[in-house]
Amino acid sequence: MTETLEDIHGPVFRPAAEGFDDERMGYQRLASHRPDLIVGAAGVDDVRAAVRHAAALGARVAVQGAGHGVNVPMDGGVLISTRRMTDVRVDPATRTAWVEAGAPWAKVIEATAPHGLAPMSGSSPGVGAVPYTLGGGLGLMARKYGFAADHVRRLTMVTADGRAVEVTPDGEPGLFWALRGGGVGGLGVVTGMEIGLLPVTRLYGGGLFFDVAEVPGVLEAWRHWTETVPEEMTSAVAMLPFPDVPEVPEDLRGKHVAQVNIAFLGSEEEGRRLVEPLRDVGPWLRDTLREIPYTESAAVFDEPDQPHAYQSQNRLLRDLDPGLLATLPKTGGPSAPIMCVVQMRHLGGALARPPRVPSAVGHRDAAYSLNALSVLRPGQEEIARRLHDDVLAPFEDQALGRGINFGYGRLTEQEARTAFDPGDYDRLAELKARHDPDGMFHANYPISPDKRDQ
Q1: What is the 3-state secondary structure (H, E, C) of 297-363?
Q2: Closest Cα to residue 288, out of 260, 254, 250, 246?
Q3: Is residue 12 classed exposed, middle or buried when 0-12, 13-18 and 19+ CB atoms within 10 A define those classes?
């Protein structure tokens, strides 16, 4: 073991060591890193030592917390596991929280709730707060308060030469722009962030479940309804084909279900009034809408919390053509070659407004997002890719590009460019050349260092 690793407080794993596989496996089981060394970082100093060790070896570096967003696994190199870096410190006077790199949103929510505050968390509290925010962060309060990245005050990052730097709008404006919405990896290892909190303690939320075969107009009804709601209302609709097996609840078994998810920041009375047009669309299978404390916000989408393999594609859309919506139950429905979940999210509102400090978040003018996701068994990756292409193809004329959040799969450089506004990918490439010219840091999507000015 080299001198730089001897001072590490957290565990160090090599491929033959007990615990190596448990440490490298994340929530996403389709793609797992296969490093030569894993550093279970206990703090910033451990991250610095790991990066310096990798630099001395000429090795690449990947970072993983809970591992929800692994798109492209790294072979060889050094994996820095941040799952032990979960400190959350709340300052109720300034309505801010300091969040370490490995803390999941659940821990941030738990820490902020006693102060009558809430973070800009997403639909799944098990997701890491920092990587989620680096991708922009599209959460339950998005239409009212914007992207999670818009609420970042400062970050700390370890650079390719092993230095710990503070990233602020004044001290490192280029990095501050890039890290907020530029995605995970590529420029350094983010070890923590300070975020603004919101005076939110509860919401009116949950789901309305419809049988698509019985209520075929539910998608268009939801689209039309989104044109009428205030910014306090954030919603989505997902179509899920449930198998006809005993493990599925009887009321959903064997049905193609449209699940409309609601998160409303107004009163329960107002929420009920706003949702009434959706209840009138047709007979529903389930209605789980109720007033809930923000600490139970996971109930809105009720997403799976067990690790599994999945792959997806998404598009950010300027609008939703009602005629095209009719294609979705066919291409992504029960007749698809493998299971496919098709989800649309309503954007706009605060998401469309520029933040006080500019960021790399792209396509703020998108009105909706469209995502196709499949849970996979081994060997189904290519089937899923073709299926998702078929689902999204009718909407390409309305597409502004891809979103960093909710995209799980390999991207080419040209595809990665579409996630950003014109010129912003080139700006990221310039920053990559400045801060990681040798390509040490492994990222979820390709950014080729632009070295034209060097």
Answers
A1: HHHCCCCCCCCECEEEEEEEECCCCHHHHCCHHHHCCCCCCCCCEEEEEECCHHHHCCCCCCCCCCC
A2: 260
A3: buried
Find where tokens 């209605």 sit: 287
The C-alpha atoms of residue 218 and residue 286 are separated, in whole angstroms, by 14
DSSP 73: P
Strand pairing partners for 206?
Answer: 262
- The length of the chain in residues reads 454
Q: d(Cα 136, Cα 230) in Å, to the nearest integer?
A: 22
HSE, CB side, 13 Å, CA atoms: give it for residue 48. Answer: 10
Measured between alpha carbons, how far is residue 136 from residues 76, 132, 172, 420, 453 in Å? Answer: 29, 7, 19, 11, 29
Please state the pTM of the whole predicted model. Answer: 0.95
Task: Express each pLDDT in 179-218 by its tens digit.
Answer: 999 986 689 999 999 999 999 999 999 999 999 999 999 9
pLDDT tier at 450 (50, 70, 90 boundaries)? low
Give the per-residue pLDDT at 2: 45
For residue 342, the cross-strand partners are: 239, 372
Per-residue pLDDT reduced to its tens digit, 5-60 = 777 999 999 998 999 999 999 888 888 899 999 999 999 999 999 999 999 999 99
Q: Say if CB 388 and CB 313 are below 8 A apart.
A: yes
Closest CA to 36 of 82, 76, 90: 76
Instruction: Give CA–CA dist 57/74, Å, rounded.
Output: 16
Q: ∠ at Cα 363 (442, 388), nearest 5°?
A: 70
The pair of structure tokens assigned to 118 is 């809430």
Sign, CA dihedral 258-263-266-269, equals: positive
Picking from 11, 113, 131, the residue whose alpha carbon sits closest to that of residue 70 is 131
Per-residue pLDDT of 121-168, as tens digits, reads 999 999 999 999 999 999 999 999 999 999 999 999 999 999 999 999
Percentage, residues of the chain above pLDDT 70: 97
